[in-house]
Amino acid sequence: CYRENILKTAKALVEDTKLLVSGAASSQDKLAQAAQSSANTITQLAEVVKLGAASLGSDDPETQVVLINAIKDVAKALSDLIGATKGAASKPADDPSMYQLKGAAKVMVTNVTSLLKTVKAVEDEATRGTRALEATIEYIKQELTVFQSSEVPEKTSSPEESIRMTKGITMATAKAVAAGNSCRQEDVIATANLSRKAVADMLTACKQASFHPDVSQEVRERALRFGTECTLGYLELLEHVLLV
């Protein structure tokens, strides 16, 4: 029941995505209508996904988290898409903002597809862990793209904060190795959820610290490079767990 509702609402959201992209080249009214429609649809989708997560029962909280994370990714992608649409409104087809819009639309569709795959996998206990790991790998890749962009963080933090956040990576690494050894679905799902948060927190703290006023250009570049290398190394670890 929930799966059918999620599928139907997700399809409606994909249609809204198309309207948003085409709306950038049309009137402000059409663009506003498309934005409002997509906002209504994502609210409906979030509700049916939450109901689906609740139906799993409280004895499987990690799988509930996987579902909630999937809808959060879709909501974030939609927010970015609406921002990109506003930036591209009334611009010529070869304007850089149009390429940004196409990129945001692609991420949006990727995340909706990922949500649907996750919903399907939830019904099959044998594939839950694999799917959770695949979704986390995709999420980390998207976070790395944001990290590597030229966008300056809204706030800065101390180098100490960045160091503190690397402890989460150490814990997640140990969990990933243990999951690779046990091959138990629940261990793999827990690893996927922990990895997602640990890497995202590390990337955020690293970028904020690298833009601290006391940090030189040379140190900033090194910090950003090591943040990227750490993430790529962790992705490789997750890929190995997935193979196992």
UniProtKB/TrEMBL annotation:
A Pfam family that the UniProt record links to this protein: Talin_IBS2B
Record-given protein name: TLN2 protein
Keywords: Cytoplasm
InterPro entries cross-referenced by the UniProt entry: Alpha-catenin/vinculin-like_sf (IPR036723), Talin_IBS2B (IPR054082)
Domain of life: Eukaryota
Coiled coil: none
Broad class of where this protein is predominantly found: cytoplasm
GO MF term list: actin filament binding; integrin binding
SUPFAM superfamilies xref list: alpha-catenin/vinculin-like
Gene field: Tln2_0
Domain Talin IBS2B: 8-119, 129-241
Any single GO CC term annotated in Swiss-Prot or TrEMBL for this entry: plasma membrane
GO biological process entries: actin cytoskeleton organization; cell-cell adhesion
Cytoplasm among keywords: yes
Subcellular location as annotated: Cytoplasm
